[in-house]
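Quick question, first post here. What does this chain look like in 3D?
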Amino acid sequence: MAYSSHITFQESALVLNTTPEVESTPHRLNSTLSSSSNAPYTHIEFTCLSVVLSILIILAIIGNSLVLVAMARTKKIRTVTNAFVANLSASDCLGSFALLWSVPGMVSTTPGFPLESDVPCVMAAVLVHLTVGCSLYSLVNIALNRYILVTKPKETYQWLYTRNKIALMVLGSWLVPLCACIIPPFGGIGEFGFDSMTRTCTVNTTHPAADTYKVIQLAVLFPTSCVVLVSYLLIWRHVRRHFNRRQEHDTLYSTDKSTGRSTQPNDGEPVACDAHSHTPTLPLQQAHSSDQGHRIKRDQLAVTKNLSIVILVFVISFAPLAIMMVAKSTRFYLYGEMFLLVSNCTNPLLYAAKHPHLGPVLRAMIRCKCSSDRDA
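> Answer (accepted):
Ran it through. Tokens below.
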């Protein structure tokens, strides 16, 4: 009888010791994420960031698709510069689509990628890095195009920007970042896939050579910012000198007009003067050509100003992510990606608001008042 009671006591103790401890659901989710992936974000953060990311992706895809459709429908806006703008919109659209594959991983609590295969995540990671690089090189093409158009002779611009050379420039904006993305992993430097720290499809931060891969990417992408900055500084200097000379010429002209003497233009040819008023006069055809030339210059300066704002927004949006790559920080990496995606959404709005050529077409499309003549 004593033996029987001893067994009963041991069974009771075993039952008491194996009773599971009850945890709250949020704590259990956060502990699951931190223990399985060591992610520096809580599950609530991942959920909120995934919602914001989805909204930005939808806006970016819709806006950049409208830009591409506008250029496909309207022949008069298919200029050399807009070819690079279309390339920028295409890369932004593809990059936004690739980011969609990170949303399931951010909302899931599984240790790895929630889908059955990791192939979509790997392909999305490559596409994200490729399109970011392509966007930067597209901005370089835009900046150089505006610099040559504004500061160089017309013959130089026409010789450089032929159909075949434009195609090579666009192709190069894809090939250079593509080589920078895929060649290092083949040599064992970096690895694309699901990153357990940020739970996104990107370069795996736990790979031993992940830091080396980031250095290579920065070495390929950083010079683009320098080229863009120098190009627009040279454009600003040229435009400032031009307006200073124009102001001096107008001052000299007004002085000569008050004294009743004729002036000499910059090319040294005399200007005909009215016999009674002594006011310089020009033939009607020459005056019309001059007004048309000034209008074209104003339009080109307006385009340059609009695209400079687009470039400035992109550089500002890319800066936080670049700083975190240099600082090797993953805590705010997702916030940097969100900030970068904002530029994909704002570019179409900047085109519609201020671009003298794309703006009217985009505003008409938004108001569903597209012209029936697609080549107009």
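Confidence is low (pLDDT under 50) at residues 1-37, 262-282, 284-293, 372-376.
Residues 10 and 16 are 10 Å apart (CA to CA).
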